[in-house]
Structures are given as C-alpha cells and as structure tokens.
Amino acid sequence: MTRVIAITGKGGTGKTAVAALLIRYLTKGNKVVLAIDADPDTNLPETLGCDSEKTLGDVREFILNDRDNLPPDINKESIFESRIYEVLVEMPRYDLLVMGRSEGASCYCYINNLLRSVMERLVKNYNTIIIDTAAGLEHFSRKTIRNVDDLIVVTDGSRRGFRTAERIHKLVDEVEIEIGNIYVVANKVTIDNKEKLIELAKELNLQLIGMVPLDEKIAELDLKGESLVSLPEDSPAMIEVEKIAKKLEL
Amino acid sequence: MEDEFPFEISPMFEGERVRKGDMYVELAGPKSRGFELVKAVKMDEIKDGKFTLIGPDLSEMEEGARCPLAMVYRIAGELVEPDLEAIVERRNHDFQNYIQGLMHLNQRYDVWLRVSKDAIKKGLNSFEMIAKASMMLFKNELPFIEKIDATYITDLDEVEKELSKAMEIYNARDERTRHLHEEDVDVFYGCSLCQSFAPTNICVVTPDRISLCGAINWFDGRAAAKVDPEGPQFAINKGKVIDEIGGEYSGVNEIANSLSSGEYDRIKLHSFFEYPHTSCGCFEVVGFYIPEVDGIGWVDRDFTGTAPNGLTFSTMAGQTGGGKQIVGFLGIGINYFRSPKFIQADGGWNRVVWIPKKLKYMVSGDIPGNIIDKIPTEEDASDLESLKKFLMEKEHPIVHKWAEEEEAEAKEEPASQVPGPMSVQSLFQIPAVQMPMSAADGSGVKLIFRNAKISIDRVIVKKKD
What we know:
The structure holds 2 protein chains of 2 kinds.
Chain A: E1 3-9, H1 15-28, E2 33-38, H2 44-48, H3 56-66, H4 76-87, E3 89-90, E4 94-98, H5 109-123, E5 128-133, H6 138-141, E6 148-155, H7 159-174, E7 179-189, H8 194-203, E8 208-213, H9 216-224, H10 236-247
Parallel strand pairs in A: 1-5, 1-6, 2-4, 2-5, 6-7, 7-8
Antiparallel strand pairs in A: 3-4
Helix pairs in contact in A: 1-10, 3-4, 4-5
Chain B: E1 23-28, E2 34-40, E3 51-54, E4 65-67, E5 69-76, H1 85-98, E6 102-105, E7 112-116, H2 117-121, H3 127-141, E8 147-153, H4 156-178, E9 187-191, E10 203-205, H5 218-227, E11 233-237, E12 241-243, E13 248-249, H6 250-259, E14 285-290, E15 295-300, H7 313-320, E16 329-332, E17 352-354, H8 357-363, H9 384-393, H10 397-412, E18 430-436, E19 446-452
Parallel strand pairs in B: 1-4, 2-5, 3-8, 15-17
Antiparallel strand pairs in B: 1-7, 5-8, 6-7, 9-10, 9-11, 12-13, 14-15, 14-16, 18-19
C-alpha cells in the first residue's frame, strides 16, 4: 500500500523545507518516493536541488488547447498520461511531479477526470507520496489527489501559524477530503518559544507531532537559494525530522 | 502457452511504471522515434504467428540504452476489416502493459516503452517474446482475428522509412473519422460530469456535436463508456429519428427525461429555438438571440467585452447555465461551429449575425465562404445600431429574411397596418422566446411567447415603490 502524506501550512513557515528533509530521510532507506509539488509557488524542486522545466499544469493546458487538432479518435487519457510521465523528474530514489499553475477560466471537469485516473495509477508505483501543498488544498478539493493518510500542518512560532492549522482542520471537513490523521509540526522553534508553542497546541486542540529547531544552516542555504542537499546529517533539523518520520512509522 | 514466457502476463500489471533507475532499456518515446500500426490484410498474405525483427535485438542492447522501435501487426480474418484497424491497434497498449516489467505508454507515433532490469534478469532477452505474448493476447481477446503476424523494427533508418508510410495510413484514418456523422452511428454518448453544478444537465455528444465544454467528442465518449459504462460518460441508443434537421431522436428524449428527472422530455440537438440542448455552466461559447435583427450572436469565454446586446459572456452565461433549456440562449463547445449540422434547424451560419474576432478566426475554415465576410465582429459592430448597419451594408442573408417577413406581414394583415414610420426591423416573427428573468427576491418571472407578434411603441419599466 502507498502511504500518502501531505504537508501544508502558511507561506513562510518552512513547510517546503520540512517536506524536503522528509523526502531526504525516506530516500536513504529502501523506499521509492513520489514527491509532488502542489503549491503554485513551486519551491520544492529548488529545495531538493533538482531541475524541473515543465509542470503538469503545462501539460493540462496543452491538452486543453490542442484537443481539436488531435486526431478525433485518439485516446486523450493516454496522451495525457504519457505527457505527465514526461514532466516527471526522475531522481535516483524519487520522482518529482510539479503541479504548476492553477486552473484558468475554462472548464476543467473532463481534464481533471482524466487526471484523477492517471494519478490513481501513478501513485500505486510508490511506497510513499510526499505532497507539498498550499494551505488552500486546491488539488484535494478537486479530488485530483485523494485519500491522504496523514496531513501535516507546519507552523512557525506565530499565533497566526497556529490559526492556519486550525483553519485547515475546518477546511478538511468542508471539502470532504478523506484524511486519516492531522498533525502539527512546529518549525523554527527556539528555547524561548518552545513552552508557549506546546501550550498553544493544547489550547487549540492540535496534535503536535514534532518541533523542528531553528537551524541557522537552513536559513543560510535558503538565503543563498541553495538546496538542502548539503545540510549535514547531524543538523538539529534533520534529526528532528527523522524523529517525526519514526513517529509516523514511515 | 503462458509458461513459455519468462514473465507473468496479467491485467494486474497495468499502470506499472518502470522508473529510470529500474530501467534496462527505453524504446521509442519522446527522445527517440517509433510507432505502432495494425493493418488488415487478406488471409493468404499471413503466416499465423510469424515474427520478423529488423535491427538489433534486446540482447544486443546495452543497459541504459535508448532505441527506436516500430511495431507493425498484420491481422486477417473473415470479420477483419480496415475499419477495425484503429480499435485493434489501441489494444496493443493494454496487452503490452499486461506483461510484467514492460511499460507501454501512448499510441501511434507517440509510443514510449521501457523494459525493466528485473524482466531482463528473469530471462526476457528478445523482442520475439514480447511480440509472441502480444500476438497471443490479440488472438485470445479479439477472437475475430484469425491470423496475425508481427514485424518489429529497431533500425533507425528503417523506422523512419516505415513511419512515413504509416503516417499516410493514420492521415487517411483521421480523414474517415472526421467524416463520421449522426446518420452513420446507432449510439451517442451522454456525459453527466457537470451534474454537480447543473443537476438537470445532460450533455449529448454525437459525431456532429461536441460536449459543451469542448473536451469530449464522440470517440472520447465511446472510449470512456467502454472502460466504465457506469461512469460519467455513457452510451445513449439513438433510437428513432423524429426530426432529422432539428436533430431529435427518441433515444435522446428518453434519456433526457430520465436524467433531468422529468423536467425535459424533448431535446433537439441542432436547434436554437425549439427544445434546445440544456446548458450546464461549463460551455465555451454562449449563443444569444438578438430580436432586433432576428439573428444569433455568439460570445466565448475569452471575450471580455460586451456583445452588441450590451451584455458580457459572464452575464449571459449566468442566465443560461444551470442545466436548463432556455430559448434565446444556448451554450456550446467551440468545435460545434465546425459541425456541418451547426444549428441547422435555424439556418446554420446564415443565422449568425455576430461573433468575436478571435473566435471567428479560430473557426474561419468552417464558415461558408459566401457568408464569412458578412458576419461582423466587435471591430465592425459594437451595438445594435452598428450591427444593423453592417448587416444591411454587407447584405447578410438575414436582411432578406426581414424583407420576406415584412411582405408576409403586409399580405396577411393589410388592414391592421399601422401607418407611420415602422422600421423593417421592428416587425418580425419570433418563433418561441422564453426570456429568463429573475426578481431580486428570487421569485422570478417567466414569460413564454409562442408565435407571438409584438409591436410596441413605448415600454416603461418602473421600480416597485
């Protein structure tokens, strides 16, 4: 069975860094991972240190724009599938799929229906799927990605970050997404705010599964626009992410 | 027979992806060349089960290599005919994906295959094994194939040479499918994907009418309904032809009745005014009746300005959508403009009096040459005045209709003719107009005019005190 984990949170909380570190931990083992960047802001490829030129959004637009020029009896799902495989970035232990741009004004009912069945087949090929997604959970509400086992909301030390976590809880109920568990990971944690964050999580009834310490090295790499590949194995953030992965039995 | 192969064969392996790291060799695909082709031939031309390879075999390929590949199957049988070629060819994708360790993607000149390292390790070392397994599946699953042979080509020059011949076959096939019409088939397809937005909408897709969203043609409907008959796309038996020009079929009426929960029991697929197709909310273009000129204008989603009636796409779309049959407005897919049956009940292109420039350009190849310059765009007409002027100047066919109708009026009711400056345009017949209206409190007003003749000197609309 494929385990599907979505990582979300307010912009700037470091959700992409947490996703990247989790992918890095998983690919050290025997797991075959599919990383999906479902945030229109698309930071995961850079954070993972791999190039992504085209996105699934580009393919979707191609099919939409070119459908009347294709042979009339051609199987569109099979063209779509093949094109999606073309934009998959194949790394030694994981594949990366970038969802890219959001939908435009035209009708996406049919194309998303095709996408659902392509995705259903694709995800079965992996042990674990890690999805970096914006707090709006667009792809989940469209059910282009469904049945998430664990949703991890990353928050920084701010009260606003926690509020986002609370809102996502509500959103999940509203859009009827099937989600097994919802956890919160506090990121950029310092000695000064640690106790307060634990209290805040309790107060808002959120399940806090890990506290990633503020890591100067990550901030430094981030500033330089470099990937997290060079982050040392024994950096405090990496160690905490490993602990989280073990708690999740990944 | 399956024991002969060093791999398992099962539908279970469909969707199996051979990742780059697990791949022994990549064949055809976006970075190389290749194709697949099925040809129908006479029984005596084939030695059943024969396999020919032109070019190097799997065993001669290095790990990690990328090679061209063409797969040509010839089939024969009493029931085999050229029309079946495309359908049979399509199955190569399914059958090759049943083979463990083989990934087959796409179709025709876009095929893309990968063989896994695991499969090679287990003893897959020649294309003959893949071809024999595929031929076995073709014959088992499609019993009308009595004889089959296969030629695989891995030599680049040879692939290129055969590909150019194959292209001619593909083009000829496309030409045939483009000329398929409602009268040639017994089954249409319905799509209920939009029912989440428009519960009473039912999209009817025929060879002459694409779905309103423009995404699903008759062949897409057929493919989807075959895979999942209970899914959002399903077969509709055409039934009896009730109105050939209007496009009314007993089978469509039955399904309209049951899927709209009795709200509609008649649909005319090629009529704007009489029992028109329902409109979901996903349509690409909305058509609108312009009573002042007795013509139909069209506006697409990408046109952000206002049409000559003073309304935008979104305003009209809001009135049209929701799965209702609304006379006076009609949602369609862009490709319906290319249909030879395009609103043929209402005069087809001769009834079209306005269309945005970009949209006109897109479908210009299918607008009859004698009318194309007579249909104004936003550059020629922006309001009713300039529209009338343009139509008269260019002698749009609708102008003759005004004159005819005026004559008919004059003959019918000479006594009641109102003296004075009655313009041609203000007197004509509206076949049946149902104007969508809604009041602020949501209760709404529905006015239905049938065969009405209305002449009004002045109308005063006042807000309720």
